[in-house]
Write a structure and sequence with these properties.
This protein is of the alpha+beta class. It has 26 helices and 40 strands. 38% of the residues are buried.
Amino acid sequence: MEKTDKTKKQLCMGILAHVDAGKTTLSEAMLYLSGEIKKAGRVDHRDSFLDNHELERKRGITIFSKQAVFELDNSTVTLLDTPGHADFSAEAERTLQILDCAVLVISGSDGVQAHTETLWRLLKRYDVPVFIFVSKMDLPGAERTKIIADLQAKLSENCIDFSLPEDEISEHLALCSEDAMEKYLETGKLDDSDISALITQRRMFPCFFGSGLRMEGVGELLKFIDKYGTSKANGEQFGARVYKIGRDAKGERLSYIKLTGGTLKPRTLLKYKNQSGEELEEKINQIRLYSGEKFQSADSVSCGQVCAVTGLSGTYPGQGIGAESQGIKPLMQSVLSYRIILPDGAEPAVLLPKFRILQEEDPELNIVWNPKTKDISVELMGKVQTEIFIGLVKQRFDLDIGLDSGHIMYKETIAEKVEGVGHFEPLRHYAEVHLLMEPLPAGSGIQIDSLCDEDSLDRNWQRLIMTHIAEKQHLGVLTGSPITDIKISLASGRAHLKHTEGGDFRQAVYRAVRQGLMGAKMILLEPYYRFSLELPQEQIGRAISDIRAMNGEFSSPEESGDMLRIEGSAPVSAMNGYSETLMAYSHGRGRLSFMPDGYRPCRKQDQVVAEIGYEPENDLENTADSVFCAHGAGFNVKWNEVPEYMHLESCLKEKKTASDEAVRARQQISIDERELEAIMEREFGPIKRPQYQEAKRNEAPVSQPVLETRRDYIIVDGYNLIFAHDELKELAKENLGLARARLMDMLSNYCGFTRAELVLVFDGFRTPGNPGSREEYHNIHIAFTKDGETADAYIERMSYEIGKNYKVRVITSDNLIRLSALRSGVLRTSSKEFIAELQWTAEQIGKVLEKTNLNAHKTRFIDGKR
């Protein structure tokens, strides 16, 4: 492998295809014609340059994505060869996020297959420009015009045959975009930059025809890519994308990355986060440029290059480092789970770390450990991958394992909006979370949002809650399967100033999700396959009958050479094992390929739920219950009783009308008025009542309400309100007494307008020898606490005594006082919110005074005219 010429453009190019389309053969031809290898290998000879793994040569298929570097006139190309078999689609998908462009290989004899269309959707999802190469044109039945029509019908109408005359190509190109059409009409041609832009923007997909084995059309394809291919990586600030984790022959961990910006050298110190969110700072030990099995050590790599680095222990596929953002979650996921059968005498807990290594290299394997049964399970795509997995474990760890028959991986979702509440309050801990969960369209996954304002819950707590929602795979309550297609929004939450820790919100979040699911109408989802079935015409009736029995859907049969093709979708549970059935009744002539096609409602939900027999209330690791505190100890509250104990109001609670309040008040058991008067007289002395007066003449009679509602009592934390009010805060810096007097005037005006009873509390806790005092100021009560008594304690005592049955509101932004008020069952309003209320009241008073003055002026004017 020659050293990279840094004056050339860097192209990271993938090569993708359905199985047996000739992808590996085309890769060998590219490497040979570019001078990278002296002899083109062959799959059937088991000597191909890139399929160098023992399992790949034994099976004759590509299993692991690998890279090779070759030089063209204007470009240094890093070729990433990806698996073509559907069972290894996840491996192919992981490479797409780092590609500048891709070559999609189509078999001239088979045309566009179901897996081809899946790859096409993935290429669109990752916005990868595509060059199409139709291989095996040397075989009988390969018709160029028929293939182009198939490509335009199933992939894009902008698939253009570049073997056509130049004038025809220009006309087709002009139809690909409005800009191209305008320029073509003005100048009669399109230049190279126009063609390159159409390819980069995925407005046009150039098609070439040939044979990789005979090396026909390959040279033309390479020249075209060299001329029109463009690199996406052009940043100056360091950034990198991890696309693969591997290990060399000595077991050293390799992180395969593409630099999307800046440069990288050995001994560079990188800061990044692992999948758990832990901050890591590690040094790059070595940079390797791989081509096939061999590599060269590099002193540095620059933007656009692909390399493997050693020294990083916490990287993972899809990860963004530096200026690069995090990758999107892969679309291709396993739908079958298998229990690993270990050799006799093997200790599962000892072998688990070895399987975790394989999961690290291929995250979609998803190794699952059951601590109760001490079973290890693995999630796989299909039969071929199960065979490869068994062989890989043997080759890597010299371990003979087996797999059971496997079971379907179901998922669960909700049918309607629901609230989930989680409360975690053992002694000296506190957190409460209310989550709003709403159903989403199929395929949406889990979406997370916040509807909570920062006045109610600090931004840092909100971020922590969102992290805890996202960090766990939450399980449903029907079968214990993962949930999906749900939007989870933080509706409200509460923390304690002293006692809340980060782990408290984790517990509250997990319990809130689970509690919501327990009370929701759940839907069980089962996976579907999208299939393509080819078989002789005389057996088409049997196939259609089988598909209908599976409750599958299918299109009208189409001719495919001397065979008929049926495409459609069916449940995985029904289609699993159908390949063997097809081979039997078609005598080996039938072909079946399928790909995961998402999840849909399970046809036999009740039957499946009963068979699995999952008991959600016995799943203590995923409990829906909450923990509350009373008398200095925590106690457990069942999920269905949590609404009776929760401290915050329900986010689904309907707003009450005046009539609702009246009915509630009529049903309220109130304390005796004399008891309330006794409390107020004890605190502030005898209550002064206005003398009854005779009604003024011409005054409209006052209509008496049918029901007397409860009086409003407001308890204000004085100093907290002063220092939350901009004007009073500035005044307090000069003279605290003036600030108190100004606040008393403002509150007196407020009570005069609203008719509320108000107690203003000032903290005298730190004043030595202070006996405390109680006084009246116009229409409000003033309380100065004594030495050793905090405003918190006084407000808590007052709230408890009169708050159980009277409408009491505590005004403060002090979290401790708000929490004590919360436990007394009274309303809480922040100082900021109450200041806005005071301002509104002052505006209303002003409007009344203005109207009164205007009426008085009119009266004097009329009297003067008389």
